[in-house]
Amino acid sequence: MASSLTTVVQNARKLHTATGLGDNGNGWAPETGKMGKALEHVKFILPNAPVQPVTINSGMEMPSWYDIYALGDTEDILKDRVDEEGVLSSVVSVNRLIRNEIDAGIHSNRIVVGGFSQGAAIGITVGISSEYPLEKTLTMATDANKNTPIFMGHGIYDQVVPFRLGKLSHDLIKSKGYPITFKTYNIQHSSYPEETEDVIKFLQQVIPENF
Questions:
Q1: 103: annotated active-site residue
Q2: Is residue 1 situated within a structural domain?
Q3: Is the pTM of this model over 0.90?
Q4: For residue 46, is pLDDT > 60?
Q5: Residue 188 domain-assigned (yes or no)
Q6: Is residue 211 one of the residues assigned to a domain?
Q7: Would you give the DSSP letter of residue 130?
Q8: Active-site residue (options: 129, 189, 191, 198)
Q9: CATH of the domain at 12
């Protein structure tokens, strides 16, 4: 059953006309704080993942958007070993946040959904499956979002989410006809200043202050 998410909110420096979603509030607030200097019209809402058992960590409870049964770089990880129930539950929870913003007066096509690692997987799933016609997605298709631009960034030395899985995900999304940008970086499983700049440029293009 989907739960209500706690959030960290970074208000826009100006009247906000767009909303961004991240995956972990406290961990990513400093990063979105930097981004906010270049995106003064954007309000960032950073939801905290629910705490739940994670199989690959011996069932230890920790913040997680869905369970992880195994790690690897084979196609069966994408196709057959996914916690679909957990993913869909998180999608429902994020859609509630989107609904809250729409009810507050933000048009759905001024909302961007994004995240890192698990959060990226949820962000992309929400972006291409939401009942609301979202403008863009940062990293179950519906026609409402068939033209939603997607940005994916991946470290070529990532040992947590192997680069091959990122490329397979990109190829699958592209094969479904979605406009997707895929950029690579010489990093492991982490963020990178060059990537942050690319995200800022992407957001400036897709949700400009003046529209």
A1: no
A2: no
A3: no
A4: yes
A5: yes
A6: no
A7: -
A8: 189
A9: 3.40.50.1820
